[in-house]
Amino acid sequence: MSGKSTVPARVLRLAPWQRINHFVGMDAISSKPNLVRTLRRLPPGQEVSPQAWLLPGEASLFAAALSSNPLKGGKTFIVKPEAECQGRGIFLARRPDDVPRGKLESGSFVAQQYVERPLLLDGFKFDLRLYVLVTSAAPLRDFLFDDGLVRLCASPYMQPRSSNLASATVHLTNFAINRQAEAAAMVTSKPAAASGAAGAPYRSGAGASVPAAPSPQGVPPADVADALGGSQCKRSIHWLMRHLRSLGIDSAAVWARVADCVNRTLLAARPELEHGYVAAS
């Protein structure tokens, strides 16, 4: 159920034994454009995401950012459609010519400065899927589950260049995209093939890399037993924390920073949550 379907009138009609798994006002963070608007409330120095533009409303500002971007050493931007999922419709751009003609006139998009030096796992980009339970809106109370998903790209990371902007399995961690590449790699690669020396981090100017043993298919690292659902592109956060500890990294400090990002995001959404709670009471 999306946050948009949880409106005060609907909540007020609930029978005593009925429950809804969203608070009224949770759409402040459950859609891409609303999340951008919400995070803009955070004061300078407290940001948890890069600069973003809401399209088409801020198209002229985004176009200016693209046009003024230098050819060498410039920034990269990632553009995501509001109403799509599983990586559909996402593209990277560095110059105005990188934007498909008429693309931004076809709907609502969010453009954002791309993080070009991400933390890598043996040279592969990854992200985290977290699970947060909000039990109260006023006062705000939330619980972060101590496990979740680590989603990895199927191809080694490369800093964005014109030649690789369209390489989805390099830049996008969406599982729907990478599982297809992983399946193809399992069919075409030799069973014992490896993507380089074991534990050797891929660099080539990319961000810091956490070494880990490569998989037999040459896609993201870890023992086969650690794969979730038989996929080398998916791990658990428990696995990631164990791996960080094995490298001498303070996993508790890493997790505390993750929790801080969660809390800042919910605090930014607090006005809508409290207003919705009062309206539905």
Any overview of this molecule?
This protein is of the alpha+beta class. The chain is 29% helix and 16% strand. The protein is built from 9 helices and 11 strands. About 12% of the residues have low confidence.
Question: Keyphrases for this structure?
Answer:
four-stranded antiparallel sheet, 281 residues, five-stranded mixed sheet, 29% helix, 16% strand, alpha+beta, globular
How many separate helices?
9
How does the helix and strand content classify structurally? Answer: alpha+beta
Strands, count: 11
Strand content: 15-25%
Reading the helices and strands in chain order gives HHHEHEEEEEEEEHHEEHHH
Give the C-alpha Rg: 21 Å
The biggest sheet, with number of strands, parallel, antiparallel or mixed sense and barrel status, is: 5 strands, mixed
